[in-house]
DNA sequence: GTAAATCATAGATGCTGCCTATCAATACTC
DNA sequence: GAGTATTGATAGGCAGCATCTATGATTTAC
């Protein structure tokens, strides 16, 4: 049954429209015996008769008419789908990967840019941890990723798109308690530190910042969660402090759920767009070019 | 491009689902080189690349992924459409023809019967004059027709389904005027007669009825209209009298728009269902069987 | 009755799709 | 790091199929 070709259906539709095999043959630039043969093949594949002799012409059977009716819209849609790839304009499904912070900072602007400039391009967005993003990119599960921290894996081509500033955050209650205990430089017990998982670049930055300021403190109490939004909720609930991207906490700070407890000295975390080094698809390259032009620190 | 067969698309979809050519080959009960060849053919027909080497596997290109996404639902719909004809149940599009009176008397019950008993059957209904119905039936433009009057054309198989009683009708004002003039047997001027066109069986019956009762009258004034509903409206507006099927005027009589002026002597007009004599399609035959069982005079 | 129109059939031909048997490249494993 | 498994590509051979031209059979029209 799957040996039916598109021209079999096209033939059926044209016979139905024009009424005779000969007319369909002319329309399809072929001969009448070819049309007969195609109908015979189609009927053989389907296992039932499509036409019935009616005088000197052929009339559609009940099932044949049903098939014509069913196939008419499907045929048109299929023709369009198959022809879509030949359009000169950029068309396709591009899989975008992004870390959670990158998703919050880069994606809104990027998606808006792509939708206006390249309306034929459909984005499949997947939010993952940085380590997984690199894996997806190399494994061809993603075409373009936004990730945190300088990544220097072989076979990856990157472009910096700016930095996000980080800030130690806590709930107002926790901050007051820490101030009462005289902790002004860096957090310590009894306020535990919450962070992204240990393999995350943000975690490394946090350890770095911690080392700069707390050489004299004992090993800090670090707990992890792989989701920044959840991290914010935890800290806002007074369960500890966390080094959070400023851009994702603005709302919570404005509403009084969070308050900054200590400004970090460093320049924050660098974000970058990345594609495979050997990427050749013009659409992905164009999207990478546009992604590289993003500046996530500019609008602040 | 139309040389693409369904198995090409099926192959593409299974590769996309299973990830490798080899897995798709096993799923499709064929060999891996065959899958490679099919992909090559498909890409050749489409004119653009669907896959790109990625390590030792193949990854979909942006366009390829787009095609997979577009084809997935179309493929399923097409498979369903093609398989529909092989279902054991009756499925198909049957073209029904009917005269206007038959449409009013037979079709409601017939359609209800078919929709409950044969839900897979779709009816295409066309209302035409009797002469045209016979022509449609013989020309294979209709599969089953309901028509008035005993039709004895060669190549047609009929079954009587009852008679409709006829009645001379007029508006109450016209009826009163006729009564005042002492016309009790049959209508005459100044109330003109309205009728269906001259080739219609109902017109013949009307002439017959007229002849029975008005041998002494001069040639009556006969006007025609090819639409019974319009005929009713004309008569109700006081423009004349007409020999109308009782079943179609019940409502107008009940509402006082029409009133019977003289009961006709004959048994009315016989209606019948008809198919081509050499009809072989089991669905049409089944529908004819069901149509023959109708009794349009029974429910009265 | 003749002519035109419609579809079917037959034979020839070129192409296409499939299979078996290999090769090449890559990833995994000990 | 060597061996092995996996993945897809290639080559050769073969069968089948779609197409064409030429012709036949049947029906409709004039």
Q: Which features does this protein show?
A:
homodimer; 300 residues; alpha/beta; D-Maltodextrin-Binding Protein, domain 2; five-stranded mixed β-sheet; DNA-binding; LysR_subst-bd (chains A, B)
Describe the structure.
Chains A, B: Keywords: DNA-binding, Transcription, Transcription regulation. Chains A, B: Belongs to the LysR transcriptional regulatory family. Chains A, B: It holds the Pfam family HTH_1. The structure is a homodimer of 300-residue chains. By secondary structure, chain A is α/β, with parallel strands linked by helices. Chain A has 3 domains: 6-84, Orthogonal Bundle (Arc Repressor Mutant, subunit A), CATH 1.10.10.10; 92-164 and 270-292, Periplasmic binding protein-like II (D-Maltodextrin-Binding Protein, domain 2, 3-Layer(aba) Sandwich), CATH 3.40.190; 166-266, Periplasmic binding protein-like II (D-Maltodextrin-Binding Protein, domain 2). In chain A, 45% of the residues lie in helices and 22% in strands. Chain A has helices at 6-18, 21-27, 32-46, 62-84, 100-105, 107-117, 130-138, 172-180, 201-213, 228-236, 246-254, 282-292; strands at residues 51-54, 57-60, 92-98, 121-127, 144-148, 156-164, 166-170, 193-195, 222-224, 241-245, 259-263, 269-276. A 5-stranded mixed β-sheet of chain A has the order 4-3-5-12-6, sandwiched between helices. Chain A has a 5-stranded mixed β-sheet with strand order 9-8-10-7-11, with helices on both faces. In chain A, β1 (51-54) and β2 form a beta hairpin. In chain A, α1 (6-18) packs across α2. Chain A starts with 5 loop residues before the first helix and ends in an 8-residue tail after the last helix. The mean pLDDT of chain A is 82. Chain A binds a DNA duplex (30 and 30 nucleotides) through residues 20-22, 30-38, 40-41, 53, 55-58.
């Amino acid at each position: 049954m799957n040996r039916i070709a598109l021209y079999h259906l096209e033939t059926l539709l044209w016979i139905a429209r024009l009424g005779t095999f000969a007319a369909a043959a002319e329309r399809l630039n072929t001969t009448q015996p070819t049309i007969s043969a195609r109908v015979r093949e189609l009927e053989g594949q389907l296992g039932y008769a499509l036409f019935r002799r009616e005088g000197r012409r052929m009339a559609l059977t009940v099932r044949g008419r049903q098939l014509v009716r069913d196939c008419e819209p499907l045929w048109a849609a299929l023709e369009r789908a198959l022809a879509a790839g030949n359009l000169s304009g950029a068309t396709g499904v591009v899989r975008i990967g992004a870390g959670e912070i990158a998703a919050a900072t880069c994606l809104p602007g990027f998606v808006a840019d792509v939708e206006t400039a390249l309306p034929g391009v459909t984005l499949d967005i997947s939010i993952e941890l940085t380590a997984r993003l690199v894996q997806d990119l190399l494994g061809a599960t993603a075409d373009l990723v936004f990730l945190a921290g300088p990544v220097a894996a072989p076979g990856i081509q990157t472009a910096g798109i700016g930095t996000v500033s980080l800030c130690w955050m806590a709930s107002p209650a926790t901050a007051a308690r820490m101030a009462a205990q005289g902790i002004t430089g860096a957090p310590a017990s009894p306020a535990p530190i919450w962070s992204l998982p240990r393999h995350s670049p943000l975690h490394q930055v946090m350890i770095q910042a911690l080392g700069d300021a707390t050489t004299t403190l004992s090993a800090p109490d670090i707990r992890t969660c792989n989701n920044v939004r959840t991290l914010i909720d935890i800290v806002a609930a007074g369960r500890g402090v966390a080094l959070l991207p400023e851009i994702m906490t603005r709302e919570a700070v404005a509403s009084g759920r969070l308050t900054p407890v200590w400004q970090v000295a460093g320049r924050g975390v660098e974000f970058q767009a990345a594609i495979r080094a050997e990427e050749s698809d013009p659409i992905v390259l164009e999207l990478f070019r546009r992604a590289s032009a993003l500046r996530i620190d500019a609008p602040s």
